[in-house]
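re: that chain from earlier
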Amino acid sequence: MSWFRKKVYPPFWESYTQCFKEKPNAEVENIRFVVFDTETTGLDIKKDRILSIGTIAVISNTLKVSDNLECYIKQDLYNIETVKIHGILKEGTINKITEKEAIIQFLEHIKNAVLVAHHAAFDVAMINQALKRLHLPKLKNKVLDTGHLFQKLKLDTSKKHFSLDQLTLLFNIPQHDRHTASGDAFITALLFVKLLGVLKKKNTVLSLAYLQRSNERIGHL
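^ sequence. v structure.
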């Protein structure tokens, strides 16, 4: 009868899941959003690995600079061709931690926040693959995609997807530290706040359900 036994997860996962027992804030202004980005060895969800994770929290349309996470991960697999994009060397002087330690830090940081990313499906899927390697379930957090939010503005219906570079240029956001996880998280957070501002000016009722609504499912690659 051993197959009836409840699966036991490590304390850090149990602590993470306990956060979701708290009643979430109903007002968008009071929700803790965590904008995040991952730099990876490539774009293959199953084969590639996370090189670094960067986050910054947004509460009440304000970037909380002190509420952030930045970590770099030791690599067994490495794609030298991607170094010219993210600039992270396999060795170097940056302090690096194991993938497990990075995931623990990430879960402790995000708690039950609403996650935000640009083209979020990829970043969420990369985190979920790391969780799978640790024999853990997928992320429980609600997720918003700044690309989907931009589509709600209906400013340009000529194509379905817009890169972060295209939207930062459109909204006059400086591309400081582009292609680092922390830098891209910061840029995406600025974009997120601007998108919320424009949606508000359109007299849109900003509920989390409205912000989440999309034809695409996030994180199921």
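Confidence is low (pLDDT under 50) at residues 83-89.
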